[in-house]
Amino acid sequence: MSRPSESLPLLLKKTGLWRASHLDCEFNQGTATGYDILDQHLPGAGWPTAGITELLFDQAGIGELRLLAPALASLSQQQGRWQLWVSPPHLPYAPALAQAGIDLGAVLIVRPTTVNDSLWVMEQALGSQSCSAVLAWPQNIHDKHIRRLQVASKAGHCLGVLFRHSQAAHQSSPAELRLQLTGQRATPLKERSSIGIQVLKRRGGWSSEPFTLDFHDQLNQVTPDFSEMIVRNPPPLEPELAFIEQSRHLYADERQQQ
Amino acid sequence: MNASNNNSTLWLCLHFPHLPLQVFTRGLNPADAIKPVVILERRRVIALNQAAFDTGIRHNNNMDTAYSISHEVISFDKDSDKELTTLTNLAQWAYQFSPAVTIRAPDVLLIDIGGSLKLFNGLKALMASIESGINDLGYTSISAINTTPMAALLSARNNAATNSDHQTADNTGAVLPSIEMTPVAYLQADKAIITALQQMGIDTVRDLFKLPMSSINRRFGIYFTDYLQRLIGTQPDPQKTIDQAPHFFSDITFMADVTNTNALIFPIKRLLDELNAFLTARQLHINQLSWKLSHRHHPPKHISIYLASPEHNIKALLQLTQLKLEQVKDVQEIDTLSLTVNTFFPADTVSGDLFQSAGYQPHLDPIKGSSKRRQRQASANALLNLLSTRLGPDACFGLSMADDHRPEKSWLRLKPNQINDDTQHKTVESLPMQLAQDNHRPLFLLTPPRALQRVNDAPYLNGTLELLQGPERIDFGWWDRPTSGEVITRDYYVAAHTERGALYWVFHYGEHGKWYLHGIFS
Questions:
Q1: Which of B328, B346, B364 marks a domain boundary?
Q2: Does A241 touch chain B (CB under 8 A)?
Q3: Any idea where the UmuC domain is (chain B) (predicted)?
Q4: CA separation for the pair B61, A97 (Å, rounded)
Q5: Torsion A113-A114-A116-A119 (CA) sign
Q6: Given B401, B440, B522, which is nearest A98 (Cβ)?
Q7: Could you tell me if residue A79 is inside a domain?
């Protein structure tokens, strides 16, 4: 019979148990998110390289894709691997993707018509090893489906991202990582736009406190109001210019006569 | 085999004595081969399979006799066109072994294998692969080898008649000794000449060549002596070889109507194997193929399969065909299955990356810089093929930039087969019009733009939107519609939903025009 102080390290070593206080031990290096504050909160200091990540939010347009963009840009450099967008709600806009540094040659958009087809597409793509990321906007998805996707994603070394409504936060999910995203009130004083994040689920740690992340952009920068400088009544023209104006009228008259 | 014969011509004759029968029966599952099948010409049996022979039907039986012997018998009328097509296909197939292939209708192929012996590891190995290949295609042949084409043909006919198809005459030495015991009846000559020879008491080729050539010439004419000289090789005998027009067509006819598409897998495999040999022989790749399921009472059903890039991967094609076949619902009966390929591409001579076959290695650093789409991994293309086959070619697309400043026209939709084409990809750098970094573009674009309400001069979307940046004026193509007098400039703004923090891209026409939502900064 060994003493507890000896058996505890043994137990930690032999089984898959870990201490909640140790976030970073034994985890694979993740794909850097491009935001230091987010990297600090994630195991492996980045998005999981394999496994399903869930982003939960109420309202599109709060920056849920911009959050992923730096990671997508670096993943799109992986030779010969697709980034599959499964039934995005709107058209991914090529110039914006290029602005974000994403290689357009890697982007592939699929619009399956049925739920079964879209699950099939996700599973095939995640498990194929030929995708670096699969982004999906599923309408209805059960946790047994997510479990299958999670397994496929591990086999294919592929980042799988599900964009879901925050109602799903109350359901359990086998996903690797779950983030709750909230929109931040635009404050005129801040140039950069920002987003509120709370980690709901992560490997090797409890859920985090909500924190705010600033994007590297100037979307919130307000254009100065120049309207007071608009000249309503133009002053009379300089004499020389007036002459030119006159001759233009003359010229027009001549042409009319012809 | 003599070393001196290594580089000389050596002709292989493939005789297909059962061709009239086998053009109909090769589509059968091995389990169905027990049904008696007869081929009729003018209501007489001219060919029959073993099952029919076992019931007691014989050659030259009347059709009524055949039916009275067995009511199960399946009969086909002899189809000469089909036989010729099949023979042509076989010639194309045999092209993989030698470039000099000659068709001699109705049932003979002559192949010059002299130059191929070294490549295929000798005569024995070559013959083994040819014979097993023919068997896999569902045909049987009788072969003979000789140094002149006519002698090979003569030996093959002799072998066919004496049913000695296990002993292929492998003559590689002098011509005359090898054929001198052959009866004159198998010479390629007029029936009148052969009858005359037989009446003269000349039964074998040896007897014939004992006669002086000049007297044969005088008696039977110049054509016959010319033939004899070509037979023994004293005269050259150039053959017209097939031209390798890249066109592939092959079909299989079923005994009984097929009602279940699952039963098609076996014949599909057989046709794909044929295509495989065809492509290997010519070093070609394909990017599309079409199947035709036809029935005499229904309009034919076509199934086309398109690939993302030209390739030659029969396994993948089989998988894609099966996938497509699962979606076919409205076919009740099929009696003929055919495969057609019309477009071919020369096989890529660029050898691939040494490590590509290992698939993606997560721990290796990706090679940056050279973004040759040509080098896209085969597995990535396989995925694209899989998706576009199951979901249809329109459900899958890629993106590219376009040379236009207007938001709707500054992107292009690429079809699956264009994605791998380097010329289709315009990068930001390759365009003369560069996007200024400080002009923000949304990651999602609404097509078409969505009209918004106007509340207090501001756009309204579940709450008033506050304009943050703008206006960015974009002229909307007066050159495209010069006659209309309407305002075609748009003022774009970045707008924020102040409560929820969502950012939108909105625009309006002119000063007091309607507001539209055009993009979401997701």
A1: B346
A2: no
A3: 33-155
A4: 77
A5: positive
A6: B401
A7: yes
Q: What is the pLDDT of residue B30?
A: 65
pLDDT at residue A23 is higher than 80:
no
Same domain, B77 and B128: yes
Q: In chain A, which residue's Cα lies nearest the Cα of B359?
A: A129
* Rounded Cα gap, residues A72 and A34, in angstroms: 10
Do residues B205 and B294 share a domain?
A: no
Q: Contact, B451 vs B514, CB < 8 A?
A: yes
Question: Which pLDDT score, from 0 to 100, does residue B1 have?
Answer: 38
For residue B314, the enclosing domain spans 248-346
Q: Into how many domains does chain A fold?
A: 1
B25 in a domain, yes or no?
Answer: yes
Judge: B444–A80 Cβ closer than 8 Å, yes or no.
no
Cα separation, B199 vs B57, whole angstroms? 34
- B510 vs B304: CA distance, rounded Å: 50
Same structural domain, B222 and B272? no
- Same domain? B170 vs B103: yes
Q: Could you tell me if B274 and B93 are in contact, meaning their C-beta atoms sit under 8 angstroms apart?
A: yes
Report ipTM (2 d.p.).
0.80
B173 within a domain of the structure (yes/no) = yes
**Average of pLDDT values for A8-16?**
74
Length of chain B: 522
Query: Does residue B361 lie in a domain region?
Result: no
Token pair 């086909």: residue: B76
pLDDT of residue A198: 93
pLDDT tens-place string over residues A144-153 = 999 999 999 9
Report the residue from A99, A128, A185 with minimal CB separation from B435: A99
Q: Say what the pLDDT of residue B370 is.
A: 40
Which parts of B283-335 fold into alpha helices (H)?
314-327
- Which pLDDT belongs to residue A149? 94
Whether A229 is in a domain gets the answer no
Q: Are strands A51-57 and A159-165 parallel, antiparallel or unpaired?
A: parallel
Together in a domain, B320 and B214: no
Across the interface, which of A62, A80, A183 has its CB nearest the CB of B375? A80
Interface check for A89 against chain B (CB to CB < 8 A): the answer is: yes
DSSP for residue B62: B
Give the helix ranges, DSSP H, for B117-248.
122-137, 149-162, 175-179, 191-199, 205-210, 213-220, 222-232
Whether residues B85 and B154 share a domain: the answer is yes
Question: Is residue A235 assigned to a domain?
Answer: no
Is residue A105 assigned to a domain? yes
Q: What CATH number does residue B331 fall under?
A: 3.30.1490.100
Chain B residues with beta carbon closer than 8 angstroms to that of A128: 379, 382-383
Of B359, B411, B468, the CB nearest to A220: B468
For chain A, the distance separating the N- and C-terminal CA atoms, rounded to the nearest angstrom, is 117
Query: Whose CA is closest to B24, among B78, B63, B62?
Result: B78
B199 in the same domain as B130: yes
Tell me if chain B has a CB within 8 Å of the CB of A186.
yes
Which residues, given as ranges, of chain B have pLDDT below 70? 1-7, 27-33, 163-174, 244-245, 348-377, 421-438, 481-487, 511
Number of domains in chain B: 3
- Given a cut of 90, whether residue A139 has pLDDT beyond it is no
Contact A80, B376 (CB under 8 A): yes
pLDDT band at A165 (very low <50, low <70, confident <90, very high): very high
Domain end call among B346, B372, B393: B346
Q: In terms of domains, do B214 and B269 share one?
A: no
Task: For residue B145, report the phi and psi dihedrals to the nearest 5 degrees.
Answer: -125, 135
B382 in a domain, yes or no? no
CB pair distance less than 8 Å for A96 and B441: yes
CATH code, domain carrying A138: 3.40.50.300
pLDDT at residue B519, as a whole number: 92
Q: Which domain holds residue A174?
A: 32-180
Q: Name the residue of chain B whose CA is nearest to A61's CA.
A: B522
